[in-house]
Specification:
The protein is α/β, with parallel strands linked by helices. Helix content is 37%, strand content 19%. A 7-stranded mixed beta sheet has the order 3-2-1-4-5-7-6. Helix 2 (58-66) links the parallel strand 1 and strand 2. Helix 1 runs antiparallel to helix 7 (239-265) and helix 4 packs across helix 6 (202-208).
Amino acid sequence: MSENGAYSLAAPVDPDEHNRLDIQHRIWLIEHDGALHRATLDDSKLSRVLDVGCGTGIWAADFAREHPQTHVTGVDISPPRPEPGSVPNNCKFVEADANGDWQFAREDAATAITSTAAGPYDFINVRVLVNAIRDWPRFFAQCYRHLSSNGGILEIADCIHCFYAEDETITSEKSAMMRWWNQLFRRISEANGIDCDAPKVHAQRAKEAGFVDVDEKWVKWYCGGGGGSTGAFTKPRGKKDEVMGGMALGNRCGLVRTVTGGAVRNGALPKGMGKNEANELADSAVRDMKEMGDQRGYYLWFVIITGKKA
């Protein structure tokens, strides 16, 4: 991750935020039908794996358990400090900013089976770094450079930071959640050089970086369990959407609290917005999602791309 952007205003070691990130990991497991990734991987070629923006380290540790012969590196500006024995021996965490120089990759390359020039990693996993990366073309180039030429694979799952409603008559004028997203979250992000819509062109940028067999999938994450509402835009959903929607509702409410609280504490609110206004907007946004999420059909778009090093 990066130190800039709206998300990083939260204290990385905050227990509530750690819990939110772990819940987000479980939502992704449901999205992938229990798998840790969407990409098709050849286990026989998985010598080293990198998790960029590893957060609490839950994905890296889970992957290491599933692949005990694979060396897994998780990198973050505030990596976890696990207790001895709590993560597999084939998993390690490194402190670094993915926007900077990937010294950690060169150190891994020095002991990799593949040559340094080819890159040490057979698979690079990236999740929801839209509010961390400032230069996406450079980031894709870094990923490409540090993947093995023996079919190294990149997977990025990211969120387009714009809030939508199935009821297309709902705009920021009617929706406190949309107002929070547009007036606070996006304004803070953009002021720090973050492109909240970057995932829309992830596939294009992957191809420009040299990746081949690039695949792109767009998925909706509803914010609400889909039950108990008589709203015109509540339609029958499968159990998967209901479970994910209920979890995503809590996840998004947690994000509102995290970002708003961090911005207030650090004096990073958008120009002209006071603390009381920000807190009131956050309260209204959370209430809006909880009370009207199903009725209005609130959702977010996520984009999952995979690509192979040529």
